[in-house]
Amino acid sequence: TKEVPPEALDHRAGIRASEIQFGLPSLFPQVAKESKG
Prior knowledge:
Layout: H1 6-23, H2 29-36
Helix pairs in contact: 1-2
């Protein structure tokens, strides 16, 4: 199995969080709200 550096996982997770927070707020209002704090 390939080892994936934590930075890569964090980067992908950050992109996904941004997509949810800024791109799909109407589909995931609760997630977006929690992401914004």
